[in-house]
Amino acid sequence: MPSPISATAPTRLAGTEPFFVVLNAGSGRDSADDKRAAIDEVWGKAGRRYEIRTVSDPGELPGAAEWAVGKAREHGGIVAAAGGDGTLNAVTQAVLGAGLPFAILPQGTFNYFGRTYGIPADTARAATALLDARIEPVQVGLLNGRAFLVNASLGLYPQLLEDREAYKQRYGRSRAVALFSGLITLLQQPRQLHLELVRDGATHRLRTPTLVVGNNALQLEQLGFDEVDTLKRGELVAMSPKPVGTLALYWMILLGALSRLGEAENVISFGFHRLIVQPRRSRGGRYKVAMDGEVSLLDAPLVFEISKHPLPLLVPRHVDPADRK
Questions:
Q1: Which of 93, 210, 314, 324 is the most exposed place for a label (fewest CB within 10 A)?
Q2: How many other C-beta atoms lie within 10 A of the C-beta of residue 225?
Q3: pLDDT in tens, 166-209
Q4: How confident is the model over 19-62, as pLDDT tens digits?
């Protein structure tokens, strides 16, 4: 959950603030020792103070994030997260609203959040960029009060993520493995969700295998949706396929790979500030959702909205366009 202490976030850095890093040993292809060595080489040589807490069990991430927030408050420092989008999400839960600058060293498979802001996936290059970074306030989405940076979803998409993780454990972490696991999951006919959506005071009904709410311009662009400007206006973007068969879902995956999913006639999308989602066949209960690639259970109704606290993210002053690809 976001920090209970809300404070005004800084807008400028002195360049001497210490870093307090939560490092997920299980993210990325390099070992935790290699990541620490890269950070030691860059920040040690620069004379920048830092402390690193390495986490090997994802269940330890919330505690490590609270440690980083406490240290940063005490020493006027920066909270940093080294890992994939799920790790960045876990640390965001603690730092959001705390009035502390947030830095990332992206280590995941897709790295949508880091790539959006041109933050290198290479640890040494990212650490170098953070030494001379600026603060940019970044929009954060909320689902039942929990933060998400890239997307949040229910239905088929969380199942795809669970299956993808199982395949990664067996075959390794790569985008090819992620795509293959998705194709296998779709061989099973997905069940349809019957949802009630409340937006701007109006109630709509939707039957769909999945509902995805996006908060990342790069992901929207790569899928071929036109609502990037919607994010810039301070809204979130809901995306959902109409009920279709397996072959049509495969066709949608192909369109997404070609950055043309937004053109599909069986896909709807719209922007919103606040969206209440209630499964129609039951009231209350818990539902499987995914936020930034991590699956959990939340109570219905599901409420999507924008956090009133932007995330004060450190971004490079000079961006290599290759780091956004």
A1: 324
A2: 22
A3: 555 665 655 565 665 655 555 566 678 899 999 988 999 999 88
A4: 999 999 987 677 889 999 999 999 999 999 999 999 999 899 99
Closest CA to 104 of 122, 126, 125: 126
Q: Are 148 and 291 contacting, i.e. CB atoms less than 8 angstroms apart?
A: yes
What amino acid occupies position 62?
P
* 203/262 same-domain check: yes
Residue numbers of the domain that contains 230:
146-155+190-306
Rg of the chain, C-alpha, whole Å: 20
In a domain, 10, yes or no: no
Query: CA 273, CA 115: separation in Å to the nearest integer?
Result: 25
148: left (phi > 0), else alpha (psi -120 to 50), else beta? beta
Sequence-ordered list of residues with C-beta below 8 angstroms from that of 231, at least 6 positions apart, any chain: 139, 214, 215, 216, 217, 220, 237
HEC assignment per residue over 188-231 = CCCCCEEEEEEECCEEEEEEECEEEEECCHHHHHHHCCCCHHHH
Domain assignment of residue 2, yes or no: no
Give the closest residue to 110 by CA, choosing from 249, 219, 1.
219
The average pLDDT across 81-102 equals 95
For residues 150 and 134, membership in a common domain is answered with: no
Q: Is the pLDDT of residue 151 over 60?
A: yes
Distances (CA, A) of 249 to 156, 157, 163, 185: 11, 12, 17, 11
Residue type, 193: L
Residue 244 CB coordination number (10 Å): 18
Give SS3 for 169: helix
Q: CA geometry: angle at 252 spanning 247 and 256, to 5°?
A: 150
Mean pLDDT calculated for residue range 257-276: 80
